[in-house]
């Protein structure tokens, strides 16, 4: 009997003559969890798309349970028991949970759909995962976290034996993440083999049996998890470069200004934000910390004109503002990098250039029409300045890695020369090196006297970049800490939990 559920040997893949994978080896032991990690552009997604038939390899071998196979499309992958849970949810919002689970494999009674039997089977499947979800509920009415868990149920309905999970916790709350970990451990006990792709090192060390690291399209490490340290994984991800404490505080190169960039007084947003007040000085990074549902995102959306406030006042550079829409906020040079870059920050089917110029058409007009020359110049400058890995400005956003997509979101808002930029989970789903580049970008931005409101679930990032942190709980401000008052993650974690 074969020891490995999955073996890829000497896999190569190029796009337009540019090699993306170079003789990559990857092995997944039966009934185990192998974490696949690497920086943005390392080749993780390309390798998994080859495994699931979305791409075809140029050369190399693929074995499933010891048998050499050729996978040319996703249906062939499913035939071999391989399922991929995409980073972008693939559920159809207007269909019910049961309809999504049985999409393209509907059960029938004669010529008609057997809705009752599909609902019964969907209920049993969800119950086996310990999930309490109404299978008749439309997906559009469910949280992103619940949808992620339904994606797993959908994959298991295909008799999956090899499950690929791409950043599965990126949109989950702490409670939902714990449910996911329980489900993953249960699947492993059932003999299902799992490829687990994540940038979150803590959860990898918690859940994985083995770790394979890719760098520059090559396998640079593959061994049991106990043979790694956090520092060694990061060093491999950076190509053997020493980890220089990328997520640590650096003293300011310019002092915080005395003038206020933003003042929020007694802000209320329905029952989501309750009587919150805080200030942001020019040249300052202020963090908003709290658990899911604490009101962090709602505060940013209200300031930006995406939500209506139901009470309180907002002042920008001493002048009261009440943005009714995004256009008014942009005119005032206020920007928001949203939490969900794929749904709210980018048009994935369009090119890098299209996405880059959409926030400031005036910048690229000539004689009243959009200038291709100016648009290309803006895009090429962003590619250079932010070190965006893309073949050209004509590259479609869907073909960029998560970290490079995020850099485009940030770059497009930098095009309006913002006075205040609000960042909601700006490093979610990006690797450690790209995170450090985003943190450095923020430092450079505030050194010019501009201001940032920073929201992140990664406390180490907040400690690395925030001058002050506002603590939120259940829509209320419960505390405020300066950088000097936070000497460890435990201090900040305790403040959030209280």
Automatic annotation (TrEMBL):
It comes from the Bacteria. Residues 6-241, 251-498 form the ABC transporter domain. One of its GO terms (cellular component) is plasma membrane. It is found in: Cell membrane. Keywords: ATP-binding, Cell membrane, Membrane, Nucleotide-binding, Repeat, Translocase, Transport. PROSITE patterns: ABC_TRANSPORTER_1, ABC_TRANSPORTER_2. GO terms for molecular function: ATP binding; ATP hydrolysis activity. SMART domains: AAA. Its main location: membrane. This is Sugar ABC transporter ATP-binding protein. InterPro entries: AAA+_ATPase (IPR003593), ABC_carbohydrate_import_ATPase (IPR050107), ABC_transporter-like_ATP-bd (IPR003439), ABC_transporter-like_CS (IPR017871), P-loop_NTPase (IPR027417). It is a peripheral membrane protein. It comes from Candidatus Egerieimonas intestinavium.
């Amino acid at each position: 009997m074969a020891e490995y559920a999955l073996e890829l040997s000497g896999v190569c893949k190029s796009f337009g003559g540019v090699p993306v994978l170079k003789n990559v080896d990857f092995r997944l032991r039966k009934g185990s969890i192998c974490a696949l990690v690497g920086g943005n552009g390392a080749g993780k997604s390309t390798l998994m798309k080859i495994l699931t038939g979305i791409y075809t390899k140029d050369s190399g071998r693929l074995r499933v349970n010891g048998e050499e196979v050729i996978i040319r499309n996703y249906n062939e992958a499913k035939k071999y028991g391989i399922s991929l849970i995409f980073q972008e949810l693939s559920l159809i919002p207007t269909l019910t949970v049961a309809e999504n689970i049985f999409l393209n494999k509907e059960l029938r009674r004669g010529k008609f759909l057997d809705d009752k039997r599909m609902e019964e089977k969907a209920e049993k499947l969800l119950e086996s995962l310990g999930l309490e979800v109404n299978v008749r509920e439309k997906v559009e009415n469910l949280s992103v976290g619940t949808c992620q868990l339904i994606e797993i149920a959908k994959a298991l309905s295909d008799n999956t034996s090899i499950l690929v999970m791409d950043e599965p916790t990126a949109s989950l709350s702490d409670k939902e993440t714990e449910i996911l970990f329980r489900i993953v451990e249960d699947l492993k006990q059932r003999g299902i083999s799992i490829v687990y792709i994540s940038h979150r090192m803590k959860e990898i060390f918690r859940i994985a049996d083995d770790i394979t690291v890719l760098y520059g399209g090559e396998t640079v490490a593959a061994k049991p998890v106990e043979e790694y340290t956090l520092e060694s994984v990061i060093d491999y991800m950076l190509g053997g470069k020493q980890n220089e404490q990328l997520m640590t505080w650096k003293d300011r190169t310019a002092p915080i200004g005395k003038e206020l960039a933003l003042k929020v007084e007694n802000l209320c947003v329905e029952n989501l934000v309750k009587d919150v007040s805080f200030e942001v000085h020019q040249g300052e990074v202020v963090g908003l910390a709290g658990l899911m549902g604490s009101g962090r995102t709602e505060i940013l959306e209200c300031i930006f004109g995406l939500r209506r406030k139901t009470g309180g006042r907002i002042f920008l550079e001493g002048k009261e503002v009440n943005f009714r829409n995004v256009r008014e906020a942009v005119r005032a040079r206020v920007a928001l990098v949203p939490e969900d870059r794929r749904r709210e920050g980018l048009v994935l089917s369009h090119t890098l250039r299209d996405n880059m110029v959409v926030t400031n058409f005036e910048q690229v007009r000539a004689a009243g029409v959009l200038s291709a020359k100016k648009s290309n110049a803006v895009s090429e400058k962003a590619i250079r300045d932010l070190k965006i890995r893309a073949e050209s400005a004509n590259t479609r956003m869907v073909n960029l890695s998560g970290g490079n997509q995020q850099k485009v979101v940030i770059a497009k808002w930098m095009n309006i020369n913002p006075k205040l930029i609000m960042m909601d989970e700006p490093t979610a789903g990006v690797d450690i090196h790209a995170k450090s580049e985003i943190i450095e970008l923020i430092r450079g931005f505030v050194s010019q006297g501009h201001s940032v409101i920073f929201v992140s679930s990664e406390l180490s990032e907040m400690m690395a970049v925030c001058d002050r942190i506002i603590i939120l709980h259940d829509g209320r401000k419960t505390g405020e800490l300066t950088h000097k008052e936070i000497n460890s993650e435990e201090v900040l974690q305790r403040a959030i939990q209280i």
